[in-house]
Design brief:
Helices cover about 25% and strands about 25% of the residues. By secondary structure, the chain is an alpha/beta fold. The chain has 2 domains: about 180 residues, FAD/NAD(P)-binding domain (3-Layer(bba) Sandwich), CATH 3.50.50; about 160 residues, D-Amino Acid Oxidase, subunit A, domain 2 (D-Amino Acid Oxidase, Chain A, domain 2), CATH 3.30.9.10. The strands form 4 sheets. An 8-stranded mixed sheet has the order 6-7-5-15-16-17-14-18, sandwiched between helices. A 7-stranded mixed sheet has the order 1-9-3-2-13-20-19. Strands 10-11-12 form a 3-stranded antiparallel sheet, with no helix packed on it. Bound molecules: flavin-adenine dinucleotide (FAD).
Length: about 400
């Protein structure tokens, strides 16, 4: 069982691999590196795992991506979520998985064509259970949706889970050591490549370092003189506690035309909006929220889900809780996964705006690359793809 603790001097020494960052991505990476037989230490600067971006997320997952490389990560990740107890080897372990579906809605005739095209692409990519629904089918299945809707894409096996339990499960289900309150401050290299990670508590000698530092991954890259193409953008979401009856069996529901979303949550509802004008920012551990964000977002979600009008009229400030973190974008909006050729032994697993849902398969891929089970050239998300002239943006409906 993985141990999560604040290390003392005697805990430092050598490790086969060191993962920097204890969000869901780093923890899944440590899990898989441990499963391939490596002695793994993960260093996390905060006082626990899954305490920065990961808990700020809406905790959702979906296979409905139109980019092949994203589907190739999302599908096996969902299978792992579905059989999580088996994957981590802890019988009966629950991550509170809810497969209530992802519903992409539109009331704009121009977007209907995009939805139809994306269904064709999804089917080509093997996401054959994604369905195109017309107006009548939508209202028959989801009567709370506005009569103005024209079309939707829906997949029942998409849904959400508990990020906390998933991260803790990866940690408990492996033999890695998780050093909390331990900040990576530098990376040493020699003629062979990386050779040690310096921290505020001690030095770990290692030949493999994985950068899974979430919004701070560019800082870790700079420790080995790399300029990683990562752009953190603040994103917010709101939990509203409300007596208004929210259909608790509703899917994660997205208004494709204004980038807003909502889903049920016990005691109320989670709403969010991906603001296209939010600028790229310097990451911080204290991410501020905007006081007007809940009102703007309510205005957006009520467009295609009218019961939000009632919530808007009755909600009071103490029942609103806004949280924020970052989406980290790359030039093609897909993550950077794998070894960096310029610095032998240095791997990246970062650049996520959907890191929760992709973390199981992304972590496994690092294990496969480290053990040479997978050749870097067969990994479409290799960080060198932009220099190779690859890495073009796809047509995913919404950056969420
Ligand atoms: C509002 C919102 C909604 C979202 N909804 C979803 C969703 O529904 N589904 C989904 O898949 N994704 C969603 N995301 C995105 C998702 O939260 C992230 O992609 C994911 O959490 C990234 O995980 P991570 O482990 O890379 O990052 P983090 O959770 O940020 O973990 C990185 C860790 O690295 C540590 N670290 C950084 N620097 C150092 C250092 N020098 N030394 C030691 N430790 C260090 C940090 O303390 C942190 O704990 C959402 C994000 C937001 C903000």
């Amino acid at each position: 069982m993985g141990r999560i603790f604040t290390p003392t001097e005697s805990d430092f020494g050598t490790a086969d691999s060191v993962v920097i960052g204890g969000g869901i991505v780093g923890t899944a990476t440590a899990f898989w590196l441990s499963k391939v037989g490596l002695d793994v230490v993960l260093v996390e600067m905060r006082d626990g795992l899954s305490t920065l971006t990961t808990p700020a997320s809406a905790e959702c997952f979906r296979a409905q991506f139109t980019e092949p490389a994203m589907v190739a990560l999302a599908k096996p990740s969902i299978e792992m979520f579905e059989h999580f107890a088996e994957v981590i080897g802890i019988s009966g372990y629950s991550i509170s998985i809810k497969q209530q579906g992802y519903l992409f809605l539109t009331d704009d005739a121009k977007t209907v064509t995009d939805l139809k095209e994306s269904i064709d692409q999804l089917h080509k990519l093997g996401v054959t259970d994604s369905e195109y629904l017309d107006h009548d089918e939508i209202l028959a299945r989801f009567p709370f949706v506005s009569d103005s809707v024209l079309a939707a894409n829906f997949r029942q096996r998409d849904g959400w889970l508990s990020c906390h339990e998933t991260t803790q499960g990866f940690a408990k289900g492996c033999d890695a050591r998780f050093f909390i309150n331990t900040r990576a401050t530098g990376i040493q290299t020699d003629a062979k490549g990386v050779c040690a990670v310096e921290t505020n508590r001690g030095i770990l000698q290692t030949r493999i370092v994985v950068n899974a530092a979430g919004p701070f991954a560019a800082d870790i890259g700079r420790m080995v003189s790399l300029d990683l193409p990562l752009e953190p953008v603040r994103r917010q979401k709101v939990f509203i506690q409300t007596p208004v009856a929210i259909p608790q069996d509703a899917p994660f529901t997205i208004d494709v035309d204004n980038n807003s979303y909502w889903r049920p949550e016990p005691g109320g509802v989670i709403i969010g909006w991906v603001d296209p004008d939010e600028p790229v920012s310097k990451p911080s551990e204290k991410v501020h929220t905007d006081w007007e964000f809940p009102a703007i977002t309510l205005e957006k979600v009520k467009r295609l889900t009218p019961f939000f009008e009632e919530i808007e009229k009755t909600v009071r400030q103490p029942h609103i809780s806004t949280s924020a973190g970052y989406y980290v974008y790359t030039p093609d909006d897909q993550p950077l996964i794998g070894p960096v050729p310029e610095v032998p032994g240095f791997y990246v697993n970062c650049g996520y705006w959907a890191g929760v849902m992709l973390s199981p398969a992304a972590g496994k891929r690092i294990g496969d690359l480290v053990t040479a089970k997978l050749d870097p050239k067969d990994n479409p998300l290799r960080p060198s793809r932009f220099k190779e002239g690859l890495g073009k943006k796809g047509k995913t409906l919404m950056s969420h």
